[in-house]
Amino acid sequence: MRVLSWLYLALAYAFVFLPIAVLVAFSFQDGRLPVPPFKGFSLQWYDKVLGDSALMTALWHSALVAFVSSALALVMGFLAAHALARVRLPGSVLMRGVLIAPMTVSYLIIALGLLTTFNQAGVSLSLWTAGIGHVVINLPLCFAICYAAMGDQQKNAERAARDLGASEARVLWLISAPMLAPALGAAFFLSVTFSWDEFIITFLLTRFDVTLPVEIWSMLRSGLSPATNAVGSLVFLVSITAVLLMEILLFLRPR
Amino acid sequence: MTANVSIRSVTQRYGTALALNNVSLDIAAGEFVVLLGPSGCGKTTLLNLIGGFAEPAAGQILIGGRDMVGVGPAQRPTTTVFQDYALFPHMTLADNVGFGLRMRGVSRPERRARAEQMLALVGLPGRADRRPHELSGGQRQRVALARALAVEPDVLLLDEPLGALDLKLRRAMQDELKAIQTQVGTTFVHVTHDQEEAMAVADRIVVMNAGQIADLGTPREVYLRPKTLFSAAFMGEVNQIAVQNGQTALGPLLPGTGTLLIRPECIGLTGPLPLGPCTVTDAAFFGTHIRAHVTPLAADLRLTVHLPQSTAIAPGQTLTLFATDHHMLSAP
After folding, report:
1. Which of A164-168, A249-253, B126-130, B326-330 has the lowest mean pLDDT?
2. Residue B312: its pLDDT value, please?
3. Which pLDDT does position A21 carry in this prediction?
4. What residues of B are in contact with residue A166 (Cβ under 8 Å)?
5. What residues in A contact B79, CB-CB < 8 Å?
6. pLDDT score, position B332
7. What is the dotted CATH code of the domain comprising A54-251?
8. Contact B84 A178 (CB under 8 A)
9. What is the set of domains in chain B, with CATH numbers?
10. Whether residue A104 has pLDDT greater than 90
11. Domain coordinates of chain A in residue numbers?
12. pLDDT-based confidence at A255, cuts 50/70/90?
């Protein structure tokens, strides 16, 4: 039984990570095709990818959209969570529900809705519109993480700060935000990961300036190449770094 | 800095429940007042109203003669020491204590100097760079006190400040609290449900029950000359003997109609008011005294008495007892 359970564990991990492992392995392929047999180790594809200005521009765009949209989603989510956790408003349960609702809607539907809205409003598509799309998907996430992290300890400390003469803005900046720093960091990096990997919203809401996933998609249309693997590996590296940062912030914070 | 507090006909409701029912109270500048009562009596509600954390449904609160209506906690000349300390965990003790001064635009070096001075006052010198999680409960409460006093409030509000401490530490902190209050001269309004704590620190005790003031006076007055039965019972154990036109179950003791109140330690083997011969039903050694229950031969009554340690006493024995002090609460 012991052996079976370990085998099951190994299979489960293999199922999840084998495609990624294969992708990364063949990014080092010394040949023209990212398929077996493995012909030898080479960094030529990384060299090619890092020298490709279209890819590097897309990488920069991805980072820009990820960081700016995540920062916006975090600020909005934090403020909403703070208000709904602290102030008893009429219909606050409904407001909470509506804030979280976009989580349940498929990205495709959100993208189509935004596309229609932008067209109607005469807003031309750009990285900005893609960024707005990312705020829409990440705001519920940031809100939920911040809301869950707010406890009585913050509430009492905020009350004490107010009592000592702090204005609401200073209470937020000097007390609430620093006390919630681990949750805020986790929400931010998780948002960055989601935005960084996101394809369908960016694909539908950008035109000339595109992000990395969209650029990879257009590379794929011209056939398989280890270069795609190399850029995919880079994307994965960034995602995994952000997730690790989030986990460190959320679970390993010193007490 | 210090100021008087005047509470005028204050009423407060939570939904349909009446938390405070037409309460009026005058607190002198520099006075140490304790609001004492069981949970739900309205003492914390009253403290929150003074601190500006809530607005009264009716009535007026004046601090230093100034009407506080519409003035938030930040603008009031009050600060609060909370039961759970509510320290800022991400700041050093110096930054915690200096927070109120920072909000008032005091420069960093000046804040630092003042924080060190306040930490020394509460018995934590040289700890300015520590963080709250490095401290024990008692030390955290001292920091909370230093933080609240650092801005030199006119009135300091203490919401069950010693409630989370163990008994021994609580008794030690009471003495310090009283000493600090005498030193700074600020008006202290302290909420507790512990009557011993109240007597240890208060200039004046306000006993509250069901949203109203049941009694108020010095610890001696409230303990020995209570104005209501509630106050008499809340302040400690008391023997109650009904008096009807001068007659009691023990025979004629006092003129009038009402309730005769005698504290257990006010019963002894000599005294001005004879209670007659009593049979001891049980007795136990309590360290500072012997606690016994006795039944007067004349009546079907059970009295609790505290006798000196040295008294030789055994169940079944008959003693002639006297009241050394008593208080007659006349029926309205």
Report:
1. A249-253
2. 83
3. 86
4. 74, 99, 103
5. 163-164
6. 63
7. 1.10.3720.10
8. no
9. 5-233 (3.40.50.300), 261-326 (2.40.50.140)
10. no
11. 54-251
12. very low
Q: Kindly provide the ipTM of the predicted complex, given to two decimals.
A: 0.81
Closest CA to B213 of B330, B94, B43: B43
Strand partners, B192: B36
pTM over 0.90: no
Q: What is the amino acid identity at position A83?
A: A
Choose among A159, A166, A181: nearest Cβ to B86: A159
Can you give the pLDDT at residue B190? 95
pLDDT of residue A194 exceeding 50, the answer is yes
The H or E element that residue B119 is part of is: helix B108-121
Q: What confidence score (pLDDT) does residue B281 get?
A: 92
Is pLDDT above 70 for A254?
A: no
Section B174-181 average pLDDT: 91
**Which of B47, B53, B87, B99 to mutate against chain A (most A CBs within 10 Å)?**
B99
Interface subset of A 133-192, CB within 8 angstroms of B: 152-153, 156-157, 159-167, 170, 174-175, 178-179, 181
